[in-house]
């Protein structure tokens, strides 16, 4: 009976994700060699719906940059013809997006409830936040720091042994709705903390001496929408006045060079900056919490996907942060730690220089608030699966990322300010 229920559950998941139909949609990778080829990609984006995966907007495309984008099934032949006509080398990363969607759910663990090795929907994650706090009362507590546009509570977990004058590290996951590996990491991090406390000396010391605030999903409404309506949704689900297009990019919605470079003023764009800084209830709740706890929060970590990067400020300007050398050496050492397990190679550096300029990001904002150690992780992979990383990669991805996070946390503990 259980097996049948589990099968029905798995089937309903893929049935849910059939809509809109991704059948026959393709993901292309192109590396434009010059400005003319960049222009061709801009022309493409202006004449048909193109979903840019990497970078996240056509305006960020530069010569010699790797560009990944998704295209509707019936347009894919036109796109191939256009690329060929203009002598542009390309490869098809994903031949059929629907097949890749279905193939994500390849975990051998088909538990009916929560599992750390599969993608959990929001209801399952919300229930898990209550359970993990109830089962580990001396290590974990749960609070609500606000509510989403659609009225859902935003849960925050606090990890650590109770003590006086403790400094803290803030970590969030699930800014962009379709980056499912991100919330999976926040859950994994909490699991490791409670399971290894008292056994692993590093974890024990960290939890004795620091608190960790973990926000498992920032963009809850968007995340739910990726399970029910559109697996490729990125933004929040707020209504935009004067437009039928919904949502704001929550990671362009912070007051850090807000809506200048690398963010769009168009409500239909995937990088829409919103009507004002912190216009989104989700970003406002996060920013308010950090402002209220500025005296204790000493590091900010935000988890995204994909492309295997460890970034630090700035993204909204090419100016380097004051403690550039220090951040660069932390990122270098943390990337080495991460690679030590499965040899996964990360690129690290300041956001603007390392990938592209993008204004209004949470990491830059946190840094400008005085949080000296501010990092963005872009988890696996480098594009073979993109946002559709199979569940079988959750465990290795989380295990290696944990090494880097523990390295950073330990560094922060030894360099409290």
Automatic annotation (TrEMBL):
GO terms for molecular function: metallocarboxypeptidase activity; zinc ion binding. Its cofactor is Zn(2+). Residues 1-15 form the signal peptide. CDD domains: M14_CPB. Its main location: secreted. It catalyses: Preferential release of a C-terminal lysine or arginine amino acid. This is Carboxypeptidase B. It comes from Callaeas wilsoni (North Island kokako). The gene is Cpb1.
